């Protein structure tokens, strides 16, 4: 799934932490990074602070259907 316009990365990562299954970020090169990993989380945040604090688009893969719904709610309603 594609996620757009993340203007609060910390809130988004807190949401990912609530997910029951794995949530992976797919890089432009096709690599999959586990967003529930603390190391990946810190790398992503450091990249955000060096580039910008706004993510226009990212591709995610969530393993649990309930997590997909949670992420969709965040996208649609800003929960």
Write the SSE topology:
Layout (H helix, E strand, L loop, with lengths): L1 E5 L2 H10 L4 E4 L5 E3 L3 H14 L3 E8 L2 H13 L2
Antiparallel strand pairs: 1-4, 2-3, 2-4
Helix pairs in contact: 1-3
Runs with pLDDT <50, length 5+?
A: none
Order of helices and strands: EHEEHEH
> Could you tell me how far the N terminus lies from the C terminus, measured between alpha carbons in angstroms?
17 Å
Cα Rg: 12 Å
Percent of residues in helices = 40-55%
Q: Summarize the main sheet.
A: 4 strands, antiparallel
Q: What is the strand tally? A: 4
User: Can you tell me the overall shape?
Assistant: globular
- Write down the overall mean pLDDT: 81
Instruction: Give the structural class.
Output: alpha+beta
Query: In what order do the strands lie side by side in the largest sheet?
Result: 1-4-2-3
Which structural traits does this protein have?
alpha+beta, 47% helix, 4-stranded antiparallel sheet, 79 residues
3D structure, described in words:
The chain is of the alpha+beta class and 79 residues long. The chain has three helices and four strands; from the N terminus they run E-H-E-E-H-E-H. Helix 1 packs antiparallel against helix 3 (65-77).
Give a short overview.
This protein has 79 residues and is α+β, with helices and mostly antiparallel strands. Helix content is 47%, strand content 25%. 5% of the residues are buried.
């Amino acid at each position: 799934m594609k996620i757009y316009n993340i203007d609060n990365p910390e809130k988004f990562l807190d949401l990912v932490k609530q997910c029951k299954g794995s949530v992976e970020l797919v890089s432009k090169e096709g690599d999959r990074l586990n967003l529930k990993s603390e190391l990946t989380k810190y790398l992503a945040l450091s990249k955000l602070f060096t580039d910008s604090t706004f993510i226009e688009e990212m591709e995610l893969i969530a393993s649990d259907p309930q997590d997909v719904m949670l992420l969709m709610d965040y996208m649609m309603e800003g929960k």
